[in-house]
Every structure is written in C-alpha cells, then in structure tokens.
C-alpha cells in the first residue's frame, strides 16, 4: 500500500473539517444502515478524524470495545474530547495492525487516500473475525468538475501559464486510486460471504463565501498544498478560487450547489 499522506506532513485542520460536520455525517449514517451486525464486540474506526463516525458507532453499539485510529494528532485531540467510551490510537493506516481481530472495521472517507486497493481491501478483511464486517465509504471525486479545475490550475497557474509543482505531483493528483464498482465486486466477492456495493451522488447545498474551497482544502487539496512551495501555494489558491467561483456561482438564496459522489462497500467474511 502506498499513501500520498505521511505522518509529519502538513497538519490536518480539525476545526475547519468540522465546518460541514452534518453533511459529512450523512454518508456515515447511510453506511451504518446497511450493516447487519447485532452485537460486535470489537470495533475499529479507521481514519476516525474528529470522531464524527465514532460517536455514531458508540451510540449504536455501546457495549462494544471501540477504538479510533488516525494519523493526525490534531484530529484526535478533538475526538478525545467527545463524551463517549472509546480508545484512541495515533497511527498511520499503513503501519496499523489491530491488537486483536475485529468484528467491524469501519472506514469513513479515508481509504481513497491510499493506493493499491487490490491489496488494501483484502488485507483489511484478514483482520476480521469470522462473520466480521468491513464497512467503507469513499468520496469518488476524480471525475468531479471541482477536481478537474484543480488539475487545470496545477497545469497553467504558474508564471506565464506554466505548470505549478513537480511533474510527479501533477501525475499523482491525476491518478485514480479508486476502482470501478464492478472491479470491487470481482476483487471481493471470492473472499467474502456477503457483499454490498453501491454509489450515490448527493446534491450538497453549502453555505459560505467559498464553501467548495472550504470543503476541499481540508481533504482533497492537502496533497497539493504539501507539494507546492509557499509562492506556488498563493498562486494556486488565487487561480483555483477564480475558477471555482466561476463554475459554482451561488444560487439566488446565496447558497452553493455542490454535487458529490461516494462509493460504499459492506463486506462480510
């Protein structure tokens, strides 16, 4: 597995991530609704962040031993303040190994940051007890307009229309780590007992002066910011905001429409 985000890189902005917590919680609820486990004893919330999903897991299965795992101390500081019974572990998912096999591995909006899903997902299934479940949702933004605007900005927002960043950064951002729904089925069906895969597109309605930038700057744009020099970051933000405002104008009520696709997987071994 190869991840684009490494420990010690630019800190996650936990406060900014919470800005749209209600919208970020919606796919978590949708994923939870498809999980049929009755009394899981051990649950790991992988990439738990500020604990948006962890709270819901604790509410549904209050007797389970619950652990949140995240690579950001800033995110975990927010999560530790929650009034729930959970353990918290600071760890990059590439280095993570469960202390004991799990009954539920829950991964909300994190696995799309990790490459090589052909190896990643089967390896996660190996950490489950018989009858255990892997539940995943992943933003599917590679074909989104706002993502293409980011790639365009990297290509021509430098001086005199030159590219920003290194060729490696631009190739990395243009890559697509997510598989098709059919590919996930062919990968996981032979090694699971039940398998549920689906995709949604939610028309998110967001508030603020630059709400789409505010949303993506704490997630999809982090690798861009990490890969650019300070002066390049300023040029990128200026030109990217101009493009986003042009293509995502506010509605008459002042709010902005932000279509957003996600892939969901619930796999039982």
TrEMBL record:
<protein>
    <submittedName>
        <fullName>Trans-aconitate methyltransferase</fullName>
    </submittedName>
</protein>
<dbReference type="Pfam" id="PF13649">
    <property type="entry name" value="Methyltransf_25"/>
</dbReference>
<keyword id="KW-0489">Methyltransferase</keyword>
<keyword id="KW-0808">Transferase</keyword>
<feature type="domain" description="Methyltransferase">
    <location>
        <begin position="43"/>
        <end position="132"/>
    </location>
</feature>
<dbReference type="GO" id="GO:0032259">
    <property type="term" value="P:methylation"/>
</dbReference>
<dbReference type="InterPro" id="IPR023149">
    <property type="entry name" value="Trans_acon_MeTrfase_C"/>
</dbReference>
<dbReference type="InterPro" id="IPR041698">
    <property type="entry name" value="Methyltransf_25"/>
</dbReference>
<dbReference type="InterPro" id="IPR029063">
    <property type="entry name" value="SAM-dependent_MTases_sf"/>
</dbReference>
<dbReference type="GO" id="GO:0030798">
    <property type="term" value="F:trans-aconitate 2-methyltransferase activity"/>
</dbReference>
């Amino acid at each position: 597995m190869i991840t684009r985000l490494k420990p010690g890189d630019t800190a996650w902005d936990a406060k900014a991530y919470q800005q749209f917590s209600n919208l970020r919680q919606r796919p978590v609820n949708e994923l939870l609704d498809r999980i049929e486990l009755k009394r899981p004893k051990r649950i790991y919330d992988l990439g738990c962040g500020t604990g948006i999903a962890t709270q819901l897991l604790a509410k549904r299965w209050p007797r389970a031993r619950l652990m949140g795992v995240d690579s950001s101390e800033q995110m975990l500081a927010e999560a530790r303040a929650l009034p729930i019974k959970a353990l918290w572990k600071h760890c990059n998912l590439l280095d993570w190994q469960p202390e004991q096999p799990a009954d539920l591995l829950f991964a909300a909006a994190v696995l799309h940051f990790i490459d090589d899903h052909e190896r990643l997902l089967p390896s996660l299934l190996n950490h489950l007890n018989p009858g255990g479940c892997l539940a995943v949702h992943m933003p599917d933004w590679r074909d989104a307009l706002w993502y293409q605007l980011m790639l365009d900005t990297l290509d021509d927002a430098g001086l005199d229309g030159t590219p920003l960043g290194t060729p490696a950064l631009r190739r990395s951002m243009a890559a697509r780590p997510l598989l098709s729904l059919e590919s996930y089925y062919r990968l996981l069906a032979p090694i699971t007992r039940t398998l549920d895969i689906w995709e949604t597109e939610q028309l998110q309605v967001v508030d603020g002066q630059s709400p789409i930038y505010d949303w993506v700057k704490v997630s999809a744009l982090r690798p861009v910011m990490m890969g650019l020099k300070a002066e390049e970051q300023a040029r990128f933000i200026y030109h990217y905001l101009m493009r986003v405002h042009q293509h995502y104008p506010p509605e008459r009520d002042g709010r902005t429409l932000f279509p957003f696709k996600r892939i969901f997987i619930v796999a039982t071994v």
